[in-house]
Amino acid sequence: MNYEQLDQADLSGLEQAAGDWRKVKSAYEGLGDQYEQQVQRRLEKNWTGEAACAAQSEIAQVRKQMHAAAAEAGRMSKLLDDIHHDLHAFQKQLSALEEEMRGEHLVVNSNGSITDNHPMRHDSVARHDAGYSDFEDARFKLMQKYERKIDRILKKATQADETAEAALKADPNGEEDDSFTTAGYTSLDDAVEAQRDAKRAAELMAGGASPTELSELNRLLSKHADEPLFAERFVKSKGADGTLRSYMTMMNPPPGTSEDQKAVLRKIQKNLGTTLGTASRIDSPAMDKFEKELMAAGDSVYQSSNGRTTAYSYNGDQLTSSLLSHGDWDDDFLKDFGTELVQKEQDRYQFWGTDRESSWNGDGTWDLINSDPMVGFSDGLGHNPEAATDFLSGSTETDDGTIDNLDYLLKDREWHGGDADKAHFGHALEAATTGHDAGAGPSVDAPPHNQGQAELMERVVQSFGGDDEQLTDPSSMSESFGNMAAEYLPDINRAISNDPLGNTNMLFPVAGAQAELDNQDVTRFMVSVGQDPDGYAAIETAQRAYTANLMDHHLNPDLPEDQRYPGSPQEIVETISRRSGEIGGTLAVGRQEATLGEAAIADKEFSESMAQRKNLISGGISTGIGVGVSFIASPAGGAVASGVASTVSSVILEEIFQAQEPNALNEAARISGGDWEKSLESNIYLNQHTAELAAEAHGARYADSVADWALGGTRTGFNDAQTSVENMADDLETDVN
């Protein structure tokens, strides 16, 4: 910004724009209130049925966006106010300086140059005085002083102007998300700080940082990792190759580095990955170039000796992959990266003709970087659900033909790091089938499953229909499989009902796309997953909450007509208990096999996993009867905790968690036999208690009979489980006769 631009700038437009944005904020707030009063509440009160259920999450999302729009408008008004304040302040500084200079007989020209109009300059007699040369020197120095002052003001004004432009253009959502957001800068000072910190972080990444400087780098990355302004400035300073080169050196520190520093490096790795992910989502030519350079660096070799006699080395794919494990990355970049990995592994397969196609060379200190790039890529998909669904639903074109991405990674690929590495692919599957980050659980207003997610779930469960040991081995991805099943319980209950033409679908409502599952595949899936303590706990706790919510829902006398199951209350309780019993019985077979079979997992591990599940139960599982189905749980009669009435499902879950005690009997047969009987007894009690709580909550006249109905249904369900396992999954059991 030059002198004339600052001096003559009309800043009234900024002031007016800030005021206009404040009006927009008020308008959105008023519109949101009207929408809630006149639309949302009226529809919730008067609109029922499947269409109403499916619309609830959309309606809630509209209200959420109105709130975000008001917040974003308010943020814009504050930012514009701050920009106006700072630029106006610089104008005032310039004006004050001009006034000061006039007192010194100095005049500033429109181009910023200074003219000396001191009277002595025009006095011909004075020019011949002996001290005139000293006068000229003093005047020259005075002009230089004011030139420096003007220059400082212009530099600060230019920085403010450039930062204002960057802050106004910055989109915290990234190029793939057009929604409103509450994130972003409200102060020009914050934006200036972000740019300054980005420059400092790039300097610290240059190499040779001391422990104190590494801590400073981690602090800066952690503070600004999600800020586009910081991320773009940082990436521009380093470039793709420079970032990978510095990262390689940093992740392979010299001998003698402490464990505490290793912990700091892991944090830097996480925050750097998040920062680069933010940069990848910025819609600008510079960031598009960065993504291309990062892809192009895949085959480049990066080495670091760092005081050792031999150098460690990884290629660009391996380094980038370790960074993909963290942050929200551009979906297209993730999919392109995965496609190139599959293509490269297929090219290597054609050369070697063995499973060496998925064995990647590379080594480093402390194992901060996994040499298998598919591991980090899988984790990247695990917290980028849309990219995960798209990539695993697609295929990759190679010189040898078309490779189905899901089949390759789930069944065909050799994971040389074993179960520990393949478990990361479970994270990708979990995100792809559920629509949210792996391990996060659904939010209360989670949207229904879409067709792509449901079809992937179908294919995963269908894969258990064969005898692939990579799938039936419970030790690799079972926790993720359990989390996935926990969110497809309506679909699973429909599948084991074997009632394609009856009214079962009304008993187990599904919002969104249904996963069309086969009874045999589901049975084999649950027996296999049930052999893993974490997988078992995920399904068991979710099924208990689901059973409680279903009974609460269907025994409600005020249930809208189009949601009512046509059977009697007795049939409702018996059928729900039967399906719950079948799932509980099938899981019990898996648990029995785990304690009795080759794995010999201690029974107490299952109890410990159940107890730990208490901290993982999410609002979506504990209150819903199907992802996307609107449902308000009824307070359970007489159940009060801390003055707040508990729901039927929360009471049941609390009883489950309190009942978990370590159990380590000496004889495996007694443990397994006890497990089956204990599971049956537990399921009978819980289903009976669930039915009683639900009936009492609604003041049902048949409340005294529901325990008997639940008893019969649960026993029948366990018998169904035993029959199904014998006929459909006998090869997954150990013969103990």
Give a summary of the structure in a few sentences:
This protein has helices spanning 3-8, 12-46, 50-103, 132-169, 188-204, 211-224, 228-250, 259-280, 285-296, 316-324, 331-352, 373-382, 385-393, 405-412, 419-434, 451-462, 469-472, 478-486, 489-497, 504-507, 519-529, 533-554, 569-596, 603-612, 619-623, 648-659, 668-697, 706-728; strands at 106-108, 114-116, 301-304, 312-315, 395-398, 401-404, 635-641, 644-647.
Shape: elongated
What average pLDDT do the residues reach?
Answer: 82
Structural class assignment: mainly alpha
Number of helix segments? 28
Keyphrases for this structure?
elongated; 4% strand; 737 residues; two-stranded antiparallel sheet; mainly alpha
Structure description:
A hairpin with a 7-residue loop joins strand 3 and strand 4. Helices cover 64% and strands 4% of the residues. Helix 5 (188-204) packs parallel to helix 7 (228-250). The protein is mainly alpha-helical and 737 residues long. The strands form four sheets. A two-stranded antiparallel sheet has the order 1-2. The chain has a two-stranded antiparallel ribbon with strand order 3-4. The relative contact order is 0.06. The chain has helices at residues 3-8, 12-46, 50-103, 132-169, 188-204, 211-224, 228-250, 259-280, 285-296, 316-324, 331-352, 373-382, 385-393, 405-412, 419-434, 451-462, 469-472, 478-486, 489-497, 504-507, 519-529, 533-554, 569-596, 603-612, 619-623, 648-659, 668-697, 706-728; strands spanning 106-108, 114-116, 301-304, 312-315, 395-398, 401-404, 635-641, 644-647. The protein has three domains: 3-169, Up-down Bundle (Ferritin), CATH 1.20.1260; 204-406, no CATH class; 441-732, no CATH class.
